[in-house]
């Protein structure tokens, strides 16, 4: 069984240092070297190019890296499924979520899951859409929730709810004081927005391109809360999800720009690797997701 050797190889490929790999895996450095040597013998190829100052993975090493991640995931999933009691939901579930979903939508679902399955250990990783898709692809999380799109053909993507977005500003912004605003009024405005890789930024770029809007300036902040605080201080406009701004609108901290004959809607999706679809904890999570937001999408991908 090459599980230990593959685990060692993947760790070494990621940290690029024999000593650190040995420390992480609690083994001796000669053991790390032996695992790599055995794999190179098994696959009849060099996996790393070694020099006194650098350790670089080879092209064939890159091929093995992707396969090794998958094999390790399958092995650990199988071991967990065997150890779990047939009728109980326990063990770990690693969830990746983009910022809007992870900070404003997911928490209520986590509460329901913890209440219904107290033995289920939940771990949540929050990043932008691009980062979550990458985490799913590399099996760093079991399932991801994203607000943008992905072209990863190896992943399974399913819609779970519709999300409406609104253009917001400080209460004293010139557009907030109008009874009605047109798309043309949005030209030459300053925008505060998320970073490249964010689903929200991707959607704003789409709105700007499709309407031919000229932009005065972009201020990029990789935090929804940071964007809201900046907007409240009068720095410009932003396009944010209803879930992000709901409380601020209720408390009178922000204003929605009353845009004429225009709405902004997108689909939120969950994404996973096909090898995860039979994992009990993943199936439980998807069922809870669909119960939480039934009939909230017009179609599934």
Order of helices and strands: HHHEEHEHEHEEEHEHEHEEH
Individual helix count? 10
Distance between the termini: 38 Å
> How many strands in all?
11
Q: Main beta sheet, described?
A: 7 strands, mixed
The total number of structural domains is: 3
Q: What would CATH call the class of the largest domain?
A: Alpha Beta
Give me the CATH superfamily of the largest domain.
Answer: Periplasmic binding protein-like II
Named CATH topology of the largest domain: D-Maltodextrin-Binding Protein, domain 2
Verbal overview:
With 301 residues, the protein is of the alpha/beta class. It folds into 3 domains: 3-83, Arc Repressor Mutant, subunit A (Orthogonal Bundle), CATH 1.10.10; 91-161 and 267-292, D-Maltodextrin-Binding Protein, domain 2, CATH 3.40.190; 163-264, D-Maltodextrin-Binding Protein, domain 2 (3-Layer(aba) Sandwich). The protein has 10 helices and 11 strands. It has helices spanning 3-15, 18-25, 29-43, 59-83, 99-116, 129-137, 199-210, 224-232, 242-250, 280-292; strands at residues 48-50, 55-57, 91-98, 120-127, 143-146, 156-169, 189-193, 215-220, 238-241, 255-256, 264-272. Strands 3, 4, 5, 6, 9, 10 and 11 form a 7-stranded mixed β-sheet that branches. Helix 1 crosses helix 2 (18-25), helix 1 packs across helix 4 (59-83) and helix 2 packs across helix 3 (29-43). The radius of gyration is 23 Å and the shape is elongated. The two termini are 38 Å apart. The mean pLDDT is 91.
């Amino acid at each position: 069984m090459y599980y230990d050797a593959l685990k060692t190889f993947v760790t070494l490929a990621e940290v690029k240092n024999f000593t650190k790999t040995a420390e992480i895996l609690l083994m001796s450095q000669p053991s790390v070297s032996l695992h790599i040597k055995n794999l190179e013998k098994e696959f009849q190829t060099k996996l790393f190019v070694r020099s006194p100052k650098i350790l670089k993975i080879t092209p064939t090493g890159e091929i093995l890296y992707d396969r090794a991640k998958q094999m390790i995931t399958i092995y650990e999933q199988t071991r967990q499924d065997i150890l779990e009691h047939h009728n109980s939901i326990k063990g770990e579930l690693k969830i990746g979520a983009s910022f809007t979903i992870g900070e404003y939508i997911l928490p209520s679902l986590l509460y329901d899951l913890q209440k219904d399955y107290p033995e289920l250990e939940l771990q949540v990783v929050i990043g932008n859409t691009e980062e979550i898709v990458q985490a799913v692809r590399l099996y760093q999380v079991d399932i991801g929730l994203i607000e943008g799109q992905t072209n990863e053909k190896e992943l399974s993507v399913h819609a779970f709810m519709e999300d409406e977005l609104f253009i917001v500003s400080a209460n004293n912004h010139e557009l907030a004081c109008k009874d009605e605003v047109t798309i043309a009024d949005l030209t030459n405005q300053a925008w505060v927005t998320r970073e490249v890789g964010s689903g929200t930024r991707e959607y704003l770029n789409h709105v700007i391109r499709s309407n031919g809007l000229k932009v005065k300036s972009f201020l990029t902040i990789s935090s929804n809360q940071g964007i809201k605080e900046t907007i409240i201080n009068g720095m410009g406009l932003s396009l944010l999800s209803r879930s992000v701004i709901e409380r601020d609108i209720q408390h009178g901290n922000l204003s929605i720009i009353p845009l004429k004959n225009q709405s902004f809607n997108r689909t939120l999706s969950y994404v996973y690797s096909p090898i995860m679809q039979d994992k009990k904890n993943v199936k439980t999570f998807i069922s809870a997701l669909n119960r939480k937001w039934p009939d909230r999408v017009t179609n599934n991908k």
